[in-house]
Design goal:
Length: 253
């Protein structure tokens, strides 16, 4: 998410009841995790780091921008109608693009650090899309998978700010969660087709799946990996001391 392009939009959250409505969306994205651990958002930020916590906040905010509420209003539409004169055409277009975007799971390839990458939608299919991207291309690797939104800006396709790097385990969790939800909705044993409207409705699933898996992996790492020898027996650590021969150079070594 380009902070300089969304500064005014973020500030406008304080107007009317938008903060409460955004709180509902944020709760959909991270609430179950906070409830499961009986923690606050500040506690979560300490656990996963403030930058990562703000990325999760950004995922929820980008989802919020596409919400149409019961009174028929949309946050982006209201903001641009009342404050759009403060935004240039570029910022306004970017906000509208975010409003129309959906989160999906992509496989990246053909990475050119600092320039571009190709992204293939693993849920809706189709040909890979070239993305003009600087920051993410310096950390992503060939065939990595990411949950992200693709938006148009200045005639190019770019990544929005709410990007989550998905591990293989997280991808498996997401497939399981999608299958359960869509099978229940549509009553079919086959893996249902995922379309754009479905992705729009299930945006919090990407955040929650990633967050639960990340916290589980962190807890597992804190316990330490299980180590075995060639016979399958547990490795036992020993402390071994060796007496050192007197140095021919005296105490200089």
């Amino acid at each position: 998410m380009a902070a300089d392009e969304l500064t005014g939009l973020i500030r406008y959250l304080g107007q009317e009841d938008w903060q409460d409505r955004f709180g509902e969306v944020l709760g959909d994205h991270i609430g179950p995790v906070l409830e499961a651990g009986d923690i606050t958002f500040e506690d979560l930020a300490e656990m996963i780091g403030p930058d990562v916590a703000m990325t999760l906040w950004g995922c929820a905010f980008e989802d919020f921008l596409g919400q149409d509420w019961d009174d028929g209003r949309n946050f982006v539409d209201v903001y641009l109608k009342r404050r759009g004169w403060k935004e240039g055409p570029r910022n306004s277009a970017y906000m509208r693009a975010l409003k129309a975007s959906v989160m999906s799971l992509y496989e990246v390839s053909d990475i050119r650090p600092g320039q571009s990458l190709m992204a293939r939608d693993l849920l809706r299919g189709g040909d890979p899309v070239m993305l003009h991207e600087g920051t993410a291309t310096r950390t992503l690797r060939q065939w990595d998978r990411i949950a992200a939104r693709l938006v148009s800006s200045d005639g190019k396709t770019i990544l929005a700010g709410g990007l989550l790097a998905y591990s293989r385990g997280a991808c498996e969790d997401l497939a399981t969660n999608l299958y359960k939800v869509l099978r229940k909705r549509r009553g079919t044993a086959e893996f249902p087709k995922v379309d754009t409207q479905t992705l729009r409705e299930l945006a919090p699933m990407f955040t929650l799946t990633w967050l639960f898996r990340t916290l589980e992996d962190m807890a597992r790492q804190m316990d330490g990996p299980a180590l075995f020898n060639g016979d399958g027996d547990d490795l036992v650590l020993h402390e071994v001391c060796f007496s050192l021969a007197k140095s021919p150079f005296g105490n200089s070594l």
